[in-house]
């Protein structure tokens, strides 16, 4: 039974449009799937990957009004994203341009550019020669500099020795390097094959905005039952096999507190959209189809767009979004009338009416 390394990492974030602007607009990743949380029809589930979603994927659940979490033991702490070795300077400049603070550091002989997203999730861009390169080009990130996928993850365990045994005994990870405070582990090569594990116990994490919800490791199609049996035999209490449309999954919490998902590599994100169409439409999971209209009416609209800065998120939901758009429309009309060369008496009267309308929009 082959383990395919990191399949995806799923995090809880805040504002949905700000999330799209950060991951698609700034980081230049492709939004390859716009769907809903399988267990909560009022929450989006975004998938970000390469041009065809063929490498591993970052996914986010935007929970705008939820409380911030705390990064700590029982969680992925840092997600490292692979870029070409000669792209580090490009990314320093780009983070500067977007006014995102960063610092550089080196662990296990790998140069890293570390930064946080707008919700406090920790990321690093790391130099990697792994193939394939991403061919997605968007908003100033061309394929030479595009993020290829998830290189590795730094995990914080509440019981590091138990997490280490699990990774070695159940999943066949090998220690390939070690520092005073962490192990570097790997399974058979490729993007996402490495994990770093802290050696010292961290204070427990608290789930919330700005934290990773779970990490998924890839398994071969058809191996689900065998993995389920293996987990039970090793003393874990996994969920049943769940149908996630793009893969089939099993979840379990390991003894160090980390929620791990095993996800089949197939069928993948091209199962319901062509490569050309990926991420364009909102895909409603079949069990929510009956309430589709209601969902669309209440979801905050989002768009993948070319942004130069991360500003303008003064709305928390669809209702506030609509009000803001209404205000902007009235303001535009007022400005048009005001800047007319020869405003008529009717124009001036109209301005007064519009001003009152503007005040009335609450
Ligand atoms: Zn997952």
Task: Summarize the structure in words.
By secondary structure, the chain is an alpha/beta fold. It has two domains: 3-290, Roll (2,3-Dihydroxybiphenyl 1,2-Dioxygenase, domain 1); 318-360. Helices cover 23% and strands 31% of the residues. The protein contains seven helices and 17 strands. It has helices at residues 16-26, 88-97, 160-169, 224-233, 292-298, 318-338, 345-360, and strands at 3-13, 30-37, 40-49, 57-62, 75-83, 102-107, 110-116, 122-127, 149-156, 174-178, 182-186, 194-198, 211-219, 242-243, 248-253, 259-264, 282-283. Strands 14-15-16-13-1-4-3-2-17 form a nine-stranded mixed beta sheet, with helices on one face. The protein has an eight-stranded mixed beta sheet with strand order 6-7-8-5-9-12-11-10, covered by helices on one side. A hairpin with a 2-residue loop joins β2 (30-37) and β3. α6 runs antiparallel to α7 (345-360). The longest helix is centred in the C-terminal third of the chain and has 21 residues, at 318-338. The chain is globular, with a radius of gyration of 23 Å. The mean pLDDT is 95. Bound molecules: zinc ion. Zinc ion binds next to β1 and β13.
């Amino acid at each position: 039974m082959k383990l395919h390394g990191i399949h995806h990492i799923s995090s809880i974030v805040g504002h949905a449009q700000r999330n799209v602007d950060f991951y698609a607009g700034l980081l230049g990743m492709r939004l390859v799937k716009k769907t809903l949380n399988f267990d909560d029809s009022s929450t989006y589930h975004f998938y970000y990957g390469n041009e065809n979603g063929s490498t591993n994927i970052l996914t986010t659940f935007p929970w705008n009004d939820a409380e911030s979490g705390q990064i700590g033991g029982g969680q992925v702490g840092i997600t490292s994203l692979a870029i070409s070795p000669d792209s580090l300077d490009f990314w320093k400049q780009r983070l500067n341009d977007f006014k995102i603070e960063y610092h550089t550091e080196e662990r296990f002989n790998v140069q890293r550019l570390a930064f946080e997203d707008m919700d406090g999730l920790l990321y690093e861009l790391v130099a990697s020669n792994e193939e394939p390169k991403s061919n997605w080009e968007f908003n100033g990130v061309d394929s030479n500099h595009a993020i290829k996928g998830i290189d590795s993850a730094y995990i914080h365990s509440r019981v590091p020795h138990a997490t280490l045994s699990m990774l070695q005994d159940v999943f066949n990870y090998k220690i390939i390097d070690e520092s005073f405070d962490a192990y570097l582990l790997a399974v058979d090569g490729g993007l996402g094959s490495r994990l770093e594990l802290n050696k010292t116990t961290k204070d427990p994490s608290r789930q919330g905005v700005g934290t990773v919800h779970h990490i998924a490791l890839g398994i071969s199609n058809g191996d689900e039952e065998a993995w389920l049996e293996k987990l039970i035999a090793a003393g874990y209490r996994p969920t049943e096999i769940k149908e996630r449309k793009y893969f089939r999954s099993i979840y379990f919490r390991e003894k160090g507190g980390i929620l791990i998902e095993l996800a089949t590599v197939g069928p993948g994100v091209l199962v319901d959209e062509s490569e050309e169409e990926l991420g364009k439409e909102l895909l409603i999971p079949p069990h929510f189809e009956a309430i589709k209209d209601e969902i669309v009416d209440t979801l905050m609209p989002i768009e993948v767009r070319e942004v130069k800065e991360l500003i303008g998120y003064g709305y928390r939901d669809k209702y506030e979004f609509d009000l803001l758009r209404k205000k902007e429309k009235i303001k535009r009309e007022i400005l048009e009338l005001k800047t007319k060369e020869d405003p008529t008496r009717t124009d001036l009267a109209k301005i007064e009416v519009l001003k009152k309308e503007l005040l009335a929009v609450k």
